[in-house]
């Protein structure tokens, strides 16, 4: 094997369930047996961590539950929720599926634009929505887009299922409400109304294979000039992907003309405190985030 | 034992399931055409097709390949007969030092299988995950476009021939 294969590679068992129920049963059993288990889908995080992390830091891993053979997780379906159209993505839906599924392309072109900005084709064919959510990177691309679409995740375990709105899913940097034994089975998103202003903008060093300095997704709907819905997801400006609830509260129920830039900027200042890191500075991120939010709001 | 098809032939490996597909291809299976560049999914040197779609083999655990079909750069040519892409890379300067070439060929092959009339933007999107550090990308894009033209010419010739054959038969 590879000269730098981490110690213990051979000890890690892999189970390849065919159904969600089977995957949950395996996870629950591992939990009861106190075995260190990890879910595996596209491997864009798990496998890189296993191979590039210093051996002394690598978490021992007894069991990997491979989800790529669970067909239920790659389904895309449609449902009506209180008269509104929703799309439901299995957790294993890949970015490449978003780019090639006719229904998604027609209903929510923003998801196609977002998916095109994730790594490059070889990452898009492997990376999954649930993986993007579960790893909880504040620089995730999928998460802000799903958040702006009022995403709700369905978490399933051996004991049952629960739903959590995406804007309540992240607790802190890389910490989520996902409990041991749970997996993300579905993500439900609301299809924006015809005429909605839907924004996706990723600002990075280059177009492909870049991690964002700032990324913003926005959905603005109006009825006779009044903003009836202003939903956002913004990445790389806080410890978690942020929904900018303060801007939403400020904008909904008002006309765009009644909003002023200084007030919106002040609301953003209260919500996010971007940091300096290898990719950008806090000051630049805040500047860009404010400009993108204002553009998303403007007709 | 993990069993999967590689370039049309069923192969077996007793490698641990979390071993990377890349390592299994290169060492026990001896298919060293697939290169390791970055090992973290950024450079595309290790691109192979998994069930027809391009993936980075450094990000695939071999245990995930049970029953699936892998095509590496070695599986593109038909014996000694090169594909239009391989010929174009030679003739139009798409291949230089060679380290990115296998991955470029696989990514471009995946593109031409779904779209034989790509725009330059389509081509650049298809190889955005394949980094080349010597030629610049223009000659690679030109090579892929030349191959696409060759594939289209061959298809239209074949369809004309079958049409002509049909008329004669009638």
Please write out the topology.
The complex is a heterodimer of chains A (299) and B (170).
Chain A: E1 13-15, H1 20-32, E2 37-40, H2 46-52, E3 63-66, E4 76-81, E5 84-90, H3 95-100, H4 102-107, H5 109-116, H6 121-124, H7 129-134, H8 142-148, E6 152-157, E7 160-165, E8 170-172, E9 175-176, E10 183-190, E11 197-203, E12 214-223, E13 226-235, H9 245-251, H10 261-271, H11 282-297
Parallel strand pairs in A: 1-3, 2-3
Antiparallel strand pairs in A: 4-5, 5-10, 6-7, 6-10, 8-9, 11-12, 12-13
Helix pairs in contact in A: 9-10, 10-11
Chain B: E1 2-6, E2 9-13, H1 21-26, E3 47-50, E4 53-56, E5 69-71, H2 84-91, H3 101-114, H4 120-126, H5 138-169
Parallel strand pairs in B: 1-5
Antiparallel strand pairs in B: 1-2, 3-4, 3-5
Walk me through what this model shows.
The complex is a heterodimer of chains A (299) and B (170). Chain A is of the alpha+beta class. Chain A contains 11 helices and 13 strands. The longest helix of chain A has 16 residues. Chain A is globular and about 60 Å long. The N terminus of chain A is likely disordered. Chain B has 170 residues and is of the alpha+beta class. Chain B has 2 domains: 75 residues, Beta-grasp domain (Ubiquitin-like (UB roll)); 84 residues, DNA polymerase, domain 1. Helices cover 39% and strands 12% of the residues of chain B. In chain B, strands 2-1-5-3-4 form a 5-stranded mixed beta sheet, with helices on one face. In chain B, helix 2 packs across helix 5. The chains are: A alpha+beta (299), B alpha+beta (170). Chains A and B meet through helix 2 and helix 6 of A and strand 4 of B.
